[in-house]
Specification:
The complex is a heterodimer. By secondary structure, chain A is mainly alpha-helical. Chain A has helices at 2-15, 19-47, 55-67, 69-72, 79-87, 90-95, 100-128, 142-173, 176-190, 202-210, 213-216, 218-225, 230-260. Helix content of chain A is 76%, strand content 0%. The longest helix of chain A has 32 residues, at 142-173. Chain B is mostly helical. Chain B has helices spanning 2-15, 19-47, 55-75, 77-80, 82-87, 91-96, 101-108, 115-131, 138-169, 176-179, 181-187, 196-204, 208-211, 213-219, 227-232, 236-253. Classes of the chains: A mainly alpha, B mainly alpha.
């Protein structure tokens, strides 16, 4: 276990070195958040009443997305792992006395956390003090906030376990770009990154609810905003855990199969 | 010009070495803006219209901006990926060759997979035009063509400006994304939706408004101004591109190599 913690810590510290990049990212995310919100403000001006999610809740949804962007982006990739597989250096990884799945999992998790830690506080500070329709509202209740924190962490693990599947698929395809692009585009759409899930038409929502993607981000953010009541949220966390267990088991099985027939490229 | 064509054919052949990845990427490039368009459509389906703009009117705006962006991305991709040239010290090699530096940077990258995105822009534009009740005439058609070209020039100008910053910062700055990706996301809706300062900034400082929003008002008959005046408005993009190119050549003169 301590080996996995150590690799996580190294990754985290390496990520913390890029402070200028993080400052630039903060500005970018503030801009994107504002632009998205202005569009929703304009839409809600017309037919705001009777929508399944209120403008206030949308504001929370959009800002949380921007703040925790590195938790949820599926296209955030670690080029190192891809080049390990395609260049044949995977042989070194296999010599290490630890389980490959857990090793990579810890690595990816730490990269995402360090990305968010640097960025979230300045954005948080800025968005709480924005004028009325644009500000990030406070959580619906203390209980909602606690559930949100738990759901967000499990969601993060879910994202990593989904992206692990993308890495493992490279054992077969050998070129990461095509397959990972398709999965991340579809996944981010179904996670409500482009339009919040409650604003999608009914049939699209049904699709989104059947797949694991919406449990990564859409669910925790709506718990924060109070769009999902407490009781339902507690159930939701159970569903999240079930998905997580299933994805990890599937990923490990797939990785074992891949390693059994792995051809080390290069000499 | 012949040199540029040579560059293109070289890059095309090298990208075709991985055909399955190439086609998947092409398809993915078609797919990314498609999900954005789907989101765009879902919002209009739910809310009807927005501040007096119907779905098809706004879709025209969307199509023009995405088409312009993909054209700029296809051709000016070399500037977009410029930081890797500087960081690796490869830029020195371009400087010693007896050809124009800007041309070599342009030819250093060309993403053929972006054609997927191009196709999508055309499709949206086609849908919008097919469903709008607009009396088309020569002036309006010319306005639309100018809008696409002007938009591509504005995006290209931003790519060049971002590349120029690399002379000093070495690393690419994510801030530039505000104006490339952010500009695209923003300008795909009519600028009328946003707060007033956004409209002013993106008309006079970075002329997205001049290539999409204002001429569109005339094409859709939302204003009684002189059509010809609106037709030439996208030419403001040239006024934007020139200082960008000037900044670029200033940067080239102050370039200090990072290579070893």
């Amino acid at each position: 276990m301590s080996a996995y913690l150590a690799i996580g810590k190294i990754r985290f510290l390496a990520g913390m070195q890029y402070r200028a990049a993080a400052a630039a990212g903060v500005l970018t995310q503030l801009f994107f958040g504002l632009i998205f919100l202005m569009v929703y403000v304009a839409f809600y001006d017309q037919g705001g009443a009777g929508q399944p999610i209120s403008l206030r809740e949308v504001a929370a949804y959009i800002w949380l997305q921007q703040i925790f962007l590195s938790f949820i982006m599926l296209w955030l990739r670690d080029p190192e792992i891809f080049s390990l597989i395609t260049s044949g250096n995977i042989a070194y990884e296999l010599c290490r006395p630890c389980r490959l799945y857990a090793f990579w999992f810890a690595k990816l998790l730490a990269t995402r956390i360090s990305g968010a830690v640097l960025r979230c506080f300045p954005i948080l500070l800025a968005v709480f003090f924005l004028p009325a329709p644009y500000a990030l509202p406070l959580p619906a209740s203390p209980a909602a906030f606690a559930l949100f924190a738990a759901a967000l962490l499990i969601g993060l693990c879910l994202v990593v376990s989904i992206s692990m599947l993308i890495y493992i698929s490279v054992f077969w395809t050998m070129s990461p770009v095509g397959s990972s692009l398709m999965v991340s585009v579809a996944g981010e759409f179904l996670a409500g990154m482009i339009v919040p899930v409650p604003l999608m038409p009914g049939w699209m929502q049904t699709v989104a609810y059947l797949l694991p993607f919406r449990w990564t981000t859409d669910f925790p953010f709506r718990v924060y905003a109070g769009n999902i009541p407490i009781g339902e949220a507690a159930w939701g966390i159970g569903v999240q855990l079930a998905w997580f267990a299933a994805l990890v088991l599937f990923g490990q099985w797939l990785l074992n199969r891949a390693l059994r027939r792995v051809v080390v490229q290069g000499g | 010009m012949r040199l540029y064509v040579r560059y293109l054919s070289l890059l095309f052949r090298s990208q075709m070495q991985y055909p399955s990845s190439f086609w998947l990427l092409c398809f993915g490039q078609f797919f990314i803006p498609f999900t954005v368009f789907a989101g765009f459509y879902f919002l209009f389906e739910r809310f009807g219209e927005v501040r007096g703009w119907t779905f098809y009117e706004a879709a025209l705006c969307f199509g023009v901006v995405h088409l312009a962006f993909s054209i700029a991305e296809c051709f000016a991709r070399g500037f977009d990926a410029f930081s890797s040239l500087v960081a690796a010290g490869d830029f020195d090699r371009l400087l010693v060759r007896p050809r124009s530096v800007a041309l070599q940077v342009l030819g250093s990258k060309f993403e053929f997979t972006r054609f997927g995105r191009l196709l999508q822009g055309f499709a949206v534009l086609g849908i919008a035009i097919g469903n709008l009740q607009v009396e088309w005439n020569a002036v309006k058609a010319a306005t639309l063509a100018f809008m696409v070209i002007g938009g591509a020039l504005v995006f290209a100008g931003i790519f060049i400006l971002a590349a120029t910053m690399c002379f000093w910062t070495v690393q690419a700055l994510e801030v530039a994304n505000i104006f490339t990706d952010g500009g695209r996301e923003m300008a795909q809706y009519p600028l009328h939706l946003y707060e007033r300062w956004v409209l002013v900034f993106f008309t006079f400082v970075i002329p997205f408004g001049a290539v999409s929003y204002w001429p569109l008002l005339s094409v859709l008959g939302k204003t009684d101004g002189n059509g010809l005046l609106y037709m030439v408005m996208p030419l403001a993009s040239v006024l934007f591109l020139l200082p960008c190119l000037a900044a670029w050549s200033f940067g080239v003169r102050h370039y200090r190599s990072t290579g070893s």
